[in-house]
Amino acid sequence: MTVPPDSRTIALFLDSLAAERAAAANTLAAYGRDLRDASVRLGGRLGAAATGDLAVLFAAWRDLAPASLARRRSALRQYFAFLRAEGIRPDDPTARLASQKTGRPLPRTLSVAELDRLLARLRERLRDSPTPRALRLCALVELLYGSGLRASELVALPRHALRAGVPYVIVCGKGGRERLVPVSEPALEAALAWGAHVPTSSRYLFPARRGQGHMSRVALFQQVRALAAEAGLDSAQVSPHVLRHAFATHMLARGADLRTLQTLLGHADIGTTEIYTHVTTDHLVETVTRRHPLARAARPARGGEPESG
């Protein structure tokens, strides 16, 4: 197997990520560093590496933080998938590597009961004091949990991003990638109620108090954490990103498939979405019991006998 020099294949791979998947500059820089480091450690033979070579490579990286190790695994997996797709090499040495655990911690999330407490407190505040400030917080939280938006995507929403009767919003995510995100009815109502108080001169739905920009992520973080404390939750465990995680976890627990969830969350790599598969065993068993055709066929018919046919 003759493979071009690593410098060439790495450059081609990064160009492909930038052109075809609009990868963010930070992602391209990180993947480039990871792959070049791998190439150096393998004596410039990364493109021709076998599975055993990659095992040696990860042994050398064993002291890295779990997140860094997961990113390097993702970079290698995508790099070798690119080489195979381009016909540069006929196989993918990461086939086994991809199934190995990265040690990546599970995302912090909230239970449905905890979300109910948070939303109940939110609506109490709105009922007791329907001020613009309360309307804004209601819109922010409903959109975070109801649509799974990133904090950066939420605060940067244009003023007219949401319209009556249109149950979706187009957001610009990482790497400048646009995606269509469904919006729940409560979230849409909350956003429109708040939007009526946004100055017509504002470019954003959630403008900053001072200046021409939008609300900062820090301000959003502080307000979500304060609401959590009011709801009797551990505020240290609640943030805008935790609400996004809760959206994903609860969607998956209710039957959403990973590909749909990947689209909703705007993940470039489904490997990122797979961290949400920490649903309970009871739910998985219950899903198979209810949905698998053989499970249905085995149910007793009326009168206590198995169904025939």
Tally of separate helices: 14
Total domain units: 3
CATH architecture of the largest domain: Orthogonal Bundle
What is the fold-level CATH name, i.e. the topology of the largest domain?
hpI Integrase, Chain A
Largest beta-sheet details: 2 strands, antiparallel
Poorly predicted regions are 98-103, 279-283, 297-309
The whole-angstrom Rg is 24 Å
Secondary-structure element pattern, one letter each: HHHHHHHEEHHHHHHH
Beta-strand share of residues = under 5%
**Number of β-strand runs:** 2
Helical percentage: 40-55%
Helix and strand composition category: mainly alpha
Looking at CATH, the homologous superfamily of the largest domain is Intergrase catalytic core
**Gross morphology:** elongated
CATH class of the largest domain: Mainly Alpha
Distance between the termini: 55 Å
pLDDT averaged over residues: 82
Describe the structure.
- The chain is mainly alpha-helical and 309 residues long.
- It folds into three domains: 6-99, DNA polymerase, domain 1 (Orthogonal Bundle), CATH 1.10.150.130; 112-277, Orthogonal Bundle (hpI Integrase, Chain A), CATH 1.10.443.10; 279-309, no CATH class.
- Helices cover 54% and strands 3% of the residues.
- It has 14 helices and two strands, in the order H-H-H-H-H-H-H-E-E-H-H-H-H-H-H-H.
- It has a two-stranded antiparallel ribbon.
- The model is unreliable at 98-103, 279-283 and 297-309 (pLDDT under 50).
